[in-house]
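Regression test case RT-17, inverse folding.

Input:
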């Protein structure tokens, strides 16, 4: 698996079952090698089931990107690497919840960026 990371954007659609919704803290996403070779990009809608400790207990794709490798990688990486602050009930206690969002898989720009020259001191 390549270590090239996807350029991604998350959009929270819903965090059900709580007075204070769960919050995504971090996730490590690696572009699937097959999608990288095929230059595939797309948006995957997903829903994760979160345990009351904020760990991902389940994941499903709710809208496909039309690229099976991107769809599969979305849930695989969320299960393995996502860290969530758990949802809280009205008394402030952590509760199990659902978190729905969208993940945009976008290839890094192939156009090199100019780096300003540093004058010797």
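Golden output:
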């Amino acid at each position: 698996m390549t270590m090239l990371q996807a350029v991604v954007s998350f959009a929270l659609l819903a965090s059900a079952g709580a007075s204070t919704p769960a919050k995504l803290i971090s996730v490590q996403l690696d572009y699937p090698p097959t999608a990288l070779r095929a230059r595939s990009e797309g948006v995957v809608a997903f829903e994760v089931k979160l345990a009351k400790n904020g760990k991902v207990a389940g994941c499903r794709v709710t809208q496909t990107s039309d690229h099976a490798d991107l769809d599969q990688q979305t849930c695989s990486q969320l299960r393995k690497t996502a860290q969530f602050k758990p949802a809280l009930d009205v008394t402030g206690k952590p509760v199990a919840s659902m978190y729905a969002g969208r993940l945009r898989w976008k290839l890094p720009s192939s156009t090199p960026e100019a780096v300003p020259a540093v004058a010797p001191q």
